[in-house]
Amino acid sequence: MSAAHLPANHPFQPLFDKMAADEVISSLTAYDYPTARLLDEAGIDLILVGDSLGMVFAGLDDTTGVTMQHMLYHTEVVARGIKNALLVADLPYHSYQSVEDAVHNAQRLMQAGAHAVKLEGGTTQLDKVEALTRQGIPMVGHIGMLPQRVKEEGGYKKKGKTQHDADRLLRSAQDLEKAGAGAIVLESMLAEVATRITQEINIPTIGIGAGNECDGQIRVIHDLVGAYPWFRPPFAKTYADFAGDMSKAAQSFIEEIK
Ligand code: KIV
Asked: Which atom of ligand 1 is nearest to 206's Cα?
C-alpha cells in the first residue's frame, strides 16, 4: 500500500501525510478513558490499546495472558476518550490462530471502537493480513521482538543482529506491505536494520527500541510517565514520576488523617 493507493477517507491517511511531510508520527499506548482523552487532547497521532496492558495495567508477567475480553473492554473505554487520534487495538495472543479467528476477532475490536487492528509477526502471518485486507479491516503489522512469543524466545532479545535476521526482517516488512498492512511497528531491533526497512518500504514504520530513523515512534504510556517503576525497558525515556507522586500523595493523605 502507498499513499497514492489509499481509498478515500482511509484512517491511515494522516499517517501517510505526516510521512510525506517528513514529520515524525507520535504514538502512545492507552488503556483507560482519562489517559486516552489526555493523549488525544495533547495531539498524539496514534493511540494503541496494546496488549502490554496485561503487564502494566493487570500485573501479569507477560502479554500471553491477555484475552479478547480484556481487549474489547479496554478498546471500548479508550474509544470514548478519542476525538482525533487513530485508535489501533491489538489482537491478543491466540486470537488469530486461524484466518477465520483473525477476521472474526478483528471485526469485534472494530465494533468496540478501533479504527484498525495490530497483530504480531511477518511472513508467517500473511494469510491473516491478506484476509483482513480483503475484508477492508485496516491493520498494522508488528515485527522484530514479538512480546507474544517471549516464552518461546526465552526473553526480550534485540533482533537483526545477523545479516540473515536483518534480511528476514526486511522481507517480512515487504511482505506485510504487499499483503495490505497500512503501517508496521518495528520493536527492539538494531537501528540500522530499522532504518533500512524504513527506506525500503512505502508505508509508515513506527519504532520502539529501533533507533531514531523510523517514520514514527511509539512508547508504552506507563514507561513515559514513570507509572510502572518495577520494570522499564532500557530504551524508554521517562518524562514524569507518576509512581513517586502517587506514593507521596498517599503518604501525605495517611499523615494528614492521622
Ligand atoms: O502492546 C504494546 O504496547 C505494543 C507496543 C509495545 C508497540 O505492542
From this structure: 7
